[in-house]
Amino acid sequence: MSEATLHLGQTLRFDGDPFVDGLAAARHETRGALLVENGKIQAVGPAADLRAAYPWADQVDHGDGLLLAGFVDAHAHYPQTGIIASWGKRLIDWLNSYTFPEEMRFGDRAYADEVAGRYLDLLLANGTTSVCSYCTIHPSSVDAFFSAAAERNMRVLGGKTCMDRNAPEGLQDDAKSAYDDSRRLLEHWHGRGRASYVITPRFSPTSTPEQLEALGALWAEHPDCLMQTHLSEQLDEIEWVKGLYPQARDYLDTYESFGMLGEKGLYGHAIHLETREKAKLREVGASLIHCPTSNTFIGSGLFDMAGLKSAGQIVGLATDTGGGSSFSMLRSMAAAYEIGQLRGTPLHAAELLWLATAGSARALHLDNSIGNLGVGMEADFIVMNLASTPAIAQRSSRAKDIWETLFSTIMMGDDRAISETYVSGSRVAAKS
Ligand code: GUN
Ligand code: ZN
Predict the structure, then answer these.
(1) How far is the CA of 318 from the centre of ligand 2 (A)?
(2) 149 and 298 inside one domain
(3) Claim to verify: residue 156 and residue 43 sit in the same structural domain
(4) ipTM over 0.95
(5) Which atom of ligand 1 is found nearest the CA of 300?
(6) Does the keyword Transcription regulation feature in the UniProt annotation (predicted)?
(7) Whether residue 18 is found in the same domain as residue 164
(8) What is the pLDDT of residue 77?
């Protein structure tokens, strides 16, 4: 049993989805509090009320710091940590030139351990407390990821990337070994501590129909697991998929016809969707994951956030490290804003913050546990410094409300804006 601790500061939480309910979905307290005990949030509300109700609790006063749920990164590739910000290639050449050679190194468990630890520490420094990551084809890369997360007590999701064609020799499995290895890893890791296993075919160009079918069977046997893959990221990729699957109606159909479409499916990028694909994704309630820094960095295109959200699609936000050019969800929010601007539909600060927390948690089917400050939620939260640099301080000093203040940190902030990160109620990262 841990001591009850009352964290005092500004607080921001969500009662709903601001894309649907507007600003009424957001609850900001200038002087609020969180009561944390046994790794969970036991109470939340105005500081004066909680102080009076829990006089015995230890108190930690964060002053003007903003208490917010830890960020949830709904799509990343931890093995690409070392090749982030690699210059000059579009998707297919980028995979062949930078990604695949780096992913080959993860057969070495010691290297996988080193990168997994470094990656998760970078996330915590950036205020991200949960991530849904691809590993490599090597089962040991999955063990390294979940072990590093368990050492830090983080709620993470991930799985072995499956590929049995169009990848270098040494980075391919086959339909049977992909099924067998994924099943063994799933049985070992899914639900162990805070880990969730995610069935992970990389994308239809690197899987044979036989492999997709085998993984579709595995998913049907474990319907409580999520499945993650990539969908309609670049135009060249879509043409390639049409050539590889001549019978398919569209890109989504290459998953659908092998049992790889469902409510618990996560489809990364989803930029160039056809009308049928959008209707089908919405009908099944699948999650689309927006990866804005990646989509601009690799030159993929402009995700239609406003159109997809107003049609009722479920959308999460992600870095897509290392196609994405930053580990920071603040940077991802800024890029999502800029893409919205290019489409003529700017996103509000409340919408951006919701996407990076409760929205991504919803997309990952974890919104009852993480991504918000609510009674009974796991105590994964951050303290944000809303004046972390002179540039931000001078802009927020003339802000007329909390949204303008937050927007200057969203657009100009980085890891310096994350004063402290708490996982399960314990402080795991802090700026000196
Ligand atoms: N499509 C298939 N694999 C990848 C990957 O590693 N990164 C990105 N951005 N897109 C992909
Ligand atoms: Zn990806």
Answers:
(1) 9
(2) yes
(3) no
(4) yes
(5) 9
(6) no
(7) no
(8) 98
